[in-house]
Design goal:
The protein is an alpha/beta fold and 120 residues long. The protein is built from two helices and eight strands. Strands 4, 5, 6, 7 and 8 form a five-stranded mixed beta sheet that branches. The N and C termini lie far apart (32 Å).
């Protein structure tokens, strides 16, 4: 039987407790401008350049973050990305892991969600 569900990710939801702070944090991470006027609780649509969207979901007071990354942000330059995250003062959860075809490192958002930055 053919599935009516498309074979692609549409939107990633990230649970957060402080929507304005998280919108600023994620915007800085991906180099997008942040203006508080664009934040309309309980959700914030992070501006993305691809089909897959990211929505910060501030509809819960209690966030139970996953200890594992559930998604990644792509980079072509893992070393420059690592230095950039260091300059932002973000919490880095792992050093760069390098393999033949992929490199990545993990960071932690303000709610403890683990976010991967990855070349693959």
């Amino acid at each position: 039987m053919k599935s009516p569900i498309d074979n692609r990710l549409n939107t990633t939801f990230i649970p957060v407790t402080d929507i304005k702070h998280s919108a600023q944090w994620y915007s800085a991470l991906i180099g997008e401008p942040y203006t508080e006027e664009n934040v309309h609780p309980p959700v914030y649509h992070l501006p993305m350049t691809t089909h897959t969207g990211v929505i910060l979901d501030g509809g819960s007071e209690n966030v139970e973050p996953s200890p594992h990354p559930l998604f990644n942000f792509h980079t072509d330059d893992i070393d420059a990305s690592y230095r950039f995250v260091e300059q932002l003062g973000y919490i880095i959860k792992s050093d760069i892991q390098r393999f033949d075809d992929i490199s990545f490192f993990n960071i932690q958002d303000p709610d403890g969600n683990v976010v991967m930055v990855c070349t693959g």
